[in-house]
Amino acid sequence: MNPIFKHGPSPVHRLVLVLLCSAALIFFDHKMNSFEPVRGFLQSLVSPLQYLATAPKQMMNWAADNIITRRQLLADNQQYKINELVFHEQALQLDIVQRENNRLRALLASPLRGDAKKMVAEILSVDSDPYTHQVVINRGANDGVYEGQAVIDDEGIVGQILHVGTTSSRVLLITDITHAVPVRISRNGLRLIATGGGVIDRLTHNYVPHSSDIRTGDVLVTSGLGSKFPEGYPVAKVTGVIQDESRAFSQIKSQPVAKIDRLRYVLLLWPEQNNLQGLNESKTLPAEKADIK
Amino acid sequence: MSLVSRLIMFLTLLVALLASIMPLPLSVDAFRPDWVLVVLFYWCLALPSRVNVITAWVMGFILDVLLGSTLGLHAGAMAISVYIVAGNFQKIRNFSVWQQALIIGVLSALYHLIVFWLQRFLTDVVFLPSYLYPVFTTIILWPWAFLLLRKIRRNFRIT
Questions:
Q1: Residue B76 with chain A: CB contacts under 8 Å
Q2: Fewer beta carbons below 10 Å: N end or C end of chain A?
């Protein structure tokens, strides 16, 4: 039975009410960042929806993995065996170099570098919102994921953890407009900041003087400043240097080396155990470079 | 309104939410129609006393959490778009399906522009024409969604 006369507050009152709610939420969430704990809770609350939405894709992947010819499997296996041989040889070399490095560092009384803990995570969903670059992964607080944690793929830095839920968490990608990574050029150690521009295949570098030695093709690696990202992981490759003297700074563009638009598995990094002390201390410093703007 | 009717309505909205976060290839992703807006538009036309501005706001809020945007952003835009429908449902009901499709196209454009303006206000995003691609797919989607949802409503006698 449809009511002839409407009950309750009029649409205008309702609209004013919800718009006030919206304005308050936007203010407290964006300007004050006071919703972080609630965000984690909400993230856990909606994660069943995310698992459900990604189910068809998982099924397709499962089917694609299972419907594969024996010949293809044999060829893959062969390839992996060859790869393993090559990597094993490189690991042997690396082991020797690492020991030598540790000895030299000990001689110089510098802190030793330990092995970082790592964990593989799978991408659950990629956001359809065009204004932010974020992905959701299937690891959360239950696996020890924490906010601000570095996320990499097999090529380089992907981003950092933004919100942590119980079984899933959200990764802010380095190409997001609000994200910046402190980097240095691996060739000469020049320090830069790689800022996301909201475009999936481009990072920009602001405030670079004309005199700085940057060439197209230079590889940018994380500098470890700001203690969010561990040192030495590749971030991007310089694709364009425009030194226009009429502008105050030269314009540098680079392309992320991680396959940001083709992610399927990512690695979560935990800081090295013997550096934890230093990390906690540096949190009190005001200038945290890898912070979200 | 019986429990089953409520459940069916809830299910259609849930499916719309799932469709709006389902992973798609990057090239198709820009054309993803506004599923939630289409379903809300239908229910608001059919049963304006049940689905109104508050429902729209709650759906927008869930969308905010799912998309990881600033809380209250999609919620506000969704509420404004549905408010226009709620105020004019008697006129819009009498239009043909294609006229309704044009109206939902305008609403969808308004929704995307409000979201863009708010984002622009909060962070320095720049406008790309691709932000309005969903308007076209939403217009194309409307007749089919309308027929399907009407069939569901008549089948389960949701009033």
A1: 18-19, 22-23, 26
A2: N
